[in-house]
């Protein structure tokens, strides 16, 4: 029997979609089936809010449909008790008539019905969820006031329900019926397909959902009336690129020249900018903010900016990352490099000329009196100091980083050691002039050479230790200067660097003190006062160089070092040798033995 009833239900629903004719029996229920059980205390009254359509039979099909489109609740007496239905829908009423006509045709067909009478109990939900749920319970109870899980209308064989037109009311009905063991008959039609509008089909998918084409309408207002116009079609089963078909020139926009309106209140943010939402505004209202330093955005309306890699930097428009430029003291691209190179070459040539003059006049009293071997050594060390400037120019590499510090450290130590030896020799020569003095044995080149060798060896040991432990190396500084990679030399060990500078300062200080004390000693060619001035200039330059060196970065640091080397070397050259050259070239009468004899007895 259950299988036959299920088949009957399918036939009923199938025929419901085919037959569209007049109805045999439609009645507005003014009474209900008398209750069998007196416990229900059924009181039959006419109500103005319940619309029901009832026909008894051996098999009953329940149904909740929407005939009246709108409902209004009357909460004046009891909240939710009365629901007033209004605004009947002619189309929905035609569906009801189709169903009732189908029931009548079914009962006429004795072959199909097999002596069973099909009845129905249809209630109008008026499109209201509360009314739909109440209607289901009324149909199951058989009373005006629903009695959940209890039938007061005798043995009514309700085999299933017809659901409502909308999911808003159908889903709550399905929840109630699934708990009570009833099913909605449309679930039996999941795989059935029906013709629709002559060219398309209506069908159900595997989830029981209706699959059908959708017309896309354009709503617009003309003369204060709302109108619509068909502008496209959506076909779910079509290929992906053919599902949506819209005739764009048929769309009516409320803009000048019927142009598509912009759905945003802000202009698009170009690459290089990012969107910043305005506080309290809609998501389409935003400000365009320039990307921060080191960041780019490469698409329109970007919500975020992206940081460039460490070796790259944004271009002027901040939409592309480009390789950072390298910064170092170049031979050709920097004017200051050309200036330093020219000055270094000029001073080297001057030193070379001075050395030539001293070699030519090496046997004259002024050259012999000031220890010409130390003078030659001092001139050579000054020349090397001028040439060491070129190690500071150009792109730094590990080998040049090591050579530049070692070269100027050792050459300056030799130069200052030579001046210290000269000063010591002046003091020893004065002491040795006294009769019976023991200082005579210290006269000669051995003492001066020993002083230079000893003092220079200490600096060499410091430099070699520095190179062995933590030598200078090339360093790429990508953080100090935005958009630039500074190629510079890292000292490796700050202790090693300041030890070299400190030792040179110690030698210069000792030479300055001794020269200052020996400046007034009687001697025809006493150069102690010249050494005093040269050491004063030397110490001033390097003391000033330290804070300047610490406060600069990149090629500016290199410029400070080159300036200190050129200034201190030129100071030694000018203070020590230029006066002697002036005497040799322009006052030859002073540079003679006769002048020394006269000056000695005066």
From TrEMBL:
The keyword Membrane applies. Keywords: Cell membrane, G-protein coupled receptor, Glycoprotein, Membrane, Receptor, Signal, Transducer, Transmembrane, Transmembrane helix. GO terms for cellular component: plasma membrane. It comes from the Eukaryota. One of its GO terms (molecular function) is G protein-coupled receptor activity. The chain crosses the membrane at residues 12-33, 338-361, 373-393, 405-430, 451-469, 500-518, 530-550, 562-585. This is G-protein coupled receptors family 3 profile domain-containing protein. It comes from Xenopus tropicalis.
């Amino acid at each position: 029997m259950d299988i036959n009833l299920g088949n009957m239900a399918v036939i009923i629903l199938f025929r419901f979609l085919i037959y569209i004719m007049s109805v045999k029996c439609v009645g507005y229920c003014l009474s209900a089936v008398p209750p069998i059980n007196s416990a229900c205390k059924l009181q039959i009254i006419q109500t103005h809010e319940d619309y029901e359509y009832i026909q008894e039979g051996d098999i009953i099909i329940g149904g909740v449909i929407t005939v009246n489109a709108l409902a209004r609740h009357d909460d004046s007496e009891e909240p939710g008790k009365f629901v007033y239905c209004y605004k009947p829908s002619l189309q929905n009423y035609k569906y009801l008539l189709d169903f009732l006509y189908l029931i009548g045709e079914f009962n006429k067909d004795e072959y199909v019905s097999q002596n069973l009478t099909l009845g129905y109990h249809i209630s109008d939900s008026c499109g209201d969820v509360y009314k739909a749920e109440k209607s289901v319970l009324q149909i199951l109870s058989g009373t005006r006031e629903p009695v959940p899980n209890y039938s007061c209308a005798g043995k009514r064989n309700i085999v299933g329900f017809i659901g409502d037109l909308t999911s808003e009311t159908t889903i709550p009905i399905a929840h109630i019926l699934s708990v009570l063991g009833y099913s909605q008959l449309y679930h039996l039609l999941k795989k059935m397909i029906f013709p629709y509008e002559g060219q398309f089909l209506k069908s159900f998918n595997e989830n029981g959902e209706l699959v059908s084409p959708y017309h896309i309408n354009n709503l617009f207002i003309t003369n204060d009336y709302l109108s619509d116009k068909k502008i496209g079609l959506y076909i779910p089963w079509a290929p992906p690129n053919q599902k949506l078909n819209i005739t764009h020139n048929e769309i009516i926009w409320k803009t000048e020249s019927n142009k598509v309106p912009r759905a945003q209140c802000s202009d698009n943010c170009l690459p290089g900018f990012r969107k910043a939402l305005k506080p309290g505004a809609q998501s389409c209202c935003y400000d365009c903010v320039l990307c921060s330093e080191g960041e780019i955005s490469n698409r329109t309306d970007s919500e975020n900016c992206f940081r460039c890699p460490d070796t790259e930097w944004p271009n002027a428009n901040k939409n592309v990352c480009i390789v950072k430029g390298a910064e170092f003291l170049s031979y050709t691209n920097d004017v200051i490099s050309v200036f330093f190179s020219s000055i270094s070459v000029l001073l080297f040539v001057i030193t070379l000329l001075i050395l030539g003059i001293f070699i030519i006049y090496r046997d004259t009293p002024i050259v012999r009196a000031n220890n010409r071997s130390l003078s030659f050594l001092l001139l050579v060390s000054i020349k090397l100091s001028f040439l060491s400037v070129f190690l500071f120019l150009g792109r730094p590499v590990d080998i040049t980083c090591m050579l530049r510090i070692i070269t100027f450290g050792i050459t300056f130590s030799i130069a200052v050691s030579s001046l210290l030896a000269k000063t010591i020799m002046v003091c020893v020569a004065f002491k040795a002039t006294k009769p019976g003095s023991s200082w005579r044995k210290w006269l000669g080149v051995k003492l001066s050479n020993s002083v230079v060798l000893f003092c220079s060896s200490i600096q060499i040991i410091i430099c070699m230790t520095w190179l062995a432990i933590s030598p200078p190396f090339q360093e790429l500084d990508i953080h100090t200067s935005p958009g630039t990679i500074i190629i510079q030399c890292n000292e490796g060990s700050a202790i090693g660097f300041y030890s070299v500078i400190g030792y040179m300062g110690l030698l210069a200080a000792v030479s300055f003190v001794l020269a200052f004390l020996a400046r007034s000693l009687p001697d025809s060619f006493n150069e102690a006062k010249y050494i005093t001035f040269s050491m004063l200039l030397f110490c001033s330059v390097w003391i000033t160089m330290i804070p300047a060196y610490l406060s600069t970065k990149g090629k500016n640091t290199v410029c400070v070092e080159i300036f200190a080397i050129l200034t201190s070397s030129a100071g030694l050259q000018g203070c020590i040798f230029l006066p002697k050259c002036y005497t040799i070239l322009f006052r030859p009468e002073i540079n003679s033995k006769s002048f020394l004899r006269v000056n000695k007895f005066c």
